[in-house]
């Protein structure tokens, strides 16, 4: 058990942005909202999975929508607790702990907003060990935990509570409401008991994110290589260092989708890397060959600073390094690949192991 | 207080189909579902507004969607009670009475399905005195009754409960869910106390629908003019007798929209009538001039049988008579016209009084 103070969120947001593989929302907006909430209400307690009682009621708090929208349509900062309270009313029980659904930039911060406002502790872990674009892409789904009942709240004060026959239907109905509500909403869902967390969560990812963010910051401070520091901590393999030469993006179906093309520089001169994304980076082709796929993490970092580059932050001329990082092994089981493998997203390829270091 | 038996629903559905101005769903499908429910569970009690206790909890039960879809995607018959129970859970109270939201064909029948299955009585009245395409177009809205909390259920077992900042938002969010759920769902909403019914409902419209349906049937039996019988009972004015020569329809945004063109026959030879509809008939132009608009009722009847012709049933060659029928006077107040006047639907005209008899 430890307390998180506003200034720690700088490192945590940076690290979560890297683990978020380009998605999970812009860490900057989320960080400011969480820091403001902590300054207003006091520090947030983070607890390890082992510290959560077996009968605890753990609720995942997240933002849903297109990150491109959340950049301009700043959340009100009240949606998280509105969604949480609506879910609690539907269940007739109060949450005892909150947890991030994913360690994306905005979505690693969102539980801290609700935690500061309610005084509830945040569990050190998340339901993906990365970020994914759709609500049913969570490890708890592999052990029978349902996304619904799921509460969705917007900035205007509208809420809805879903009860669905499958996690895919929870995604479909929440997504269509999200689009109607303005493409940026908050969700409370995926209710777990404390004794389900070990199987349902990737443990200690908030700690990992904070340490990762610190390692990048410290490397930068001593003019060492921040990207190498990140790769070393994550066991990541460098896929390409280069610059962005083309980005094609569209906001469709409530997602930020698109492709980006990178031209190699320095040791990679002459090589190309193509990234495909749907909120998150999902596929990387090097010189025309698939070399990394979801559910492995494809992380795009600013080559100079080591800062994460979100899919909506990709732009012509940006100097980046792309890392491939192994996902939680549960994602490589048949059930995990069904949920979040490349074929689910419509890519005509199986999962491809990352190239060797 | 009286009991409704399955065979009475024939007249009721026919009359409600006429009052439904082409919308509210196909009366045939609704009638079969309600008759089956009554045969399985016993007769349904219908009570007058005056018989409802002041503290009663009255819930409107309806179908939402595009009538064109409900024709082919037959409801499961369980959605109504699923929606009702979800609403009751959200409110922590049980309904004492059900009521139709509108007297459209399917939607006058839908409360009887739920009433037969639950044993609850149905209030003789409805919230429109006709049918309208959108959820916020209800007279209770003029006295401050909100559409939400609103429960929506589909045939697959998915439910959602909305709590919204306005009736328009209830419509928007329920509609987007409806589209995602397959364009045909059931709703429980617009909760009223018994002492709100006099101002919130158009009274005795179920009785009117049944008498109207009987009058048409009896006129037909003696080879009298069934359309004249309907017009006489409703104070309606004949706008044109003719045949359908063109229909253009599209299902968009969860609605059945389109236009139909009629060429006059007999005494109307040489005249034309153009109908514009969005689930319901909303505007009639005779020889290029607007002669009837929402919120007045524009009723299309089969000239020979007096049976109602739904907007989705319009087809080339059909011989029909179009009646204009005055709406409930509350619809002609500024608030009523804001909700359901021609300008709300995008027509560049004010409400036009019906032509004299």
Number of strands of chain A: 17
Low-pLDDT parts of chain A are: none
- Number of domain units of chain A: 2
Cα distance spanning the termini of chain A: 36 Å
What is the topology, as strand order, of the major beta sheet of chain A?
A: 15-14-13-12-11-17-16
Concise overview:
The structure is a homodimer of 357-residue chains. Chain A has ten helices and 17 strands.
What do these coordinates show?
2 copies of one chain form a homodimer. The first copy, chain A, has helices at residues 8-19, 27-41, 67-72, 79-91, 105-118, 167-181, 197-200, 205-221, 226-234, 334-340; strands at 2-4, 44-47, 57-65, 97-100, 122-123, 125-126, 150-153, 159-163, 184-193, 202-203, 237-252, 255-264, 272-278, 280-286, 289-293, 297-302, 319-325. The first copy, chain A, is an alpha+beta fold and 357 residues long. The first copy, chain A, folds into 2 domains: 2-203, CV3147-like fold (3-Layer(aba) Sandwich), CATH 3.40.1610; 225-340, CV3147-like. In chain A, the strands form 4 sheets. A 7-stranded antiparallel β-sheet of chain A has the order 15-14-13-12-11-17-16.
């Amino acid at each position: 058990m430890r307390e998180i103070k506003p200034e720690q969120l700088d490192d945590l947001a940076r690290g979560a942005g890297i683990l978020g593989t380009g998605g999970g929302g812009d860490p900057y907006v989320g960080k400011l909202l969480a820091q403001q909430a902590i300054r207003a209400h006091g520090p947030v307690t983070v607890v390890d999975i082992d510290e959560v009682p077996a009968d605890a009621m753990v609720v995942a708090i997240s933002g849903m929508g297109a990150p491109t929208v959340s950049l301009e349509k700043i959340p009100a900062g009240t949606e998280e607790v509105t969604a949480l309270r609506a879910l609690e009313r539907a269940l007739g029980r109060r949450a005892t702990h909150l947890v991030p659904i994913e360690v994306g930039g905005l979505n690693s911060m969102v539980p801290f907003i609700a935690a500061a406002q309610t005084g509830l502790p945040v569990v050190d872990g998340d339901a993906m060990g990365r970020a994914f674009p759709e609500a049913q892409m969570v490890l708890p789904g592999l052990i029978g935990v349902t996304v619904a009942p799921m509460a969705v709240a917007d900035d205007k004060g509208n809420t809805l509570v879903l009860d669905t026959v499958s996690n895919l239907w929870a995604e479909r109905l929440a997504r269509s409401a999200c689009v109607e509500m303005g493409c940026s909403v908050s969700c409370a869902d995926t209710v777990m008991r404390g004794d389900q967390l070990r199987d349902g969560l990737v443990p200690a990812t908030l700690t990992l994110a904070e340490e990762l963010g610190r390692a990048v910051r410290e490397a930068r401070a001593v003019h060492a290589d921040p990207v190498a520091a990140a790769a070393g901590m994550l066991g990541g393999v460098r896929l390409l260092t280069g610059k962005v030469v083309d980005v094609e993006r569209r906001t469709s179906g409530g997602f930020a989708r698109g492709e980006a093309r990178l031209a190699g520089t320095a040791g990679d001169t002459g090589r190309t890397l193509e990234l495909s994304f749907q909120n998150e980076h999902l596929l990387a082709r090097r010189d025309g060959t698939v070399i990394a796929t979801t559910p492995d993490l494809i992380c795009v970092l600013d080559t100079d600073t080591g800062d994460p580059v979100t899919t909506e932050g990709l732009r012509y001329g940006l100097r980046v390094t792309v890392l491939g990082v192994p996902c939680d092994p549960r994602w490589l089981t048949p059930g995990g690949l069904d949920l979040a493998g490349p074929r689910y997203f419509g890519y005509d390829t199986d999962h491809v192991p990352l190239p060797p270091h």
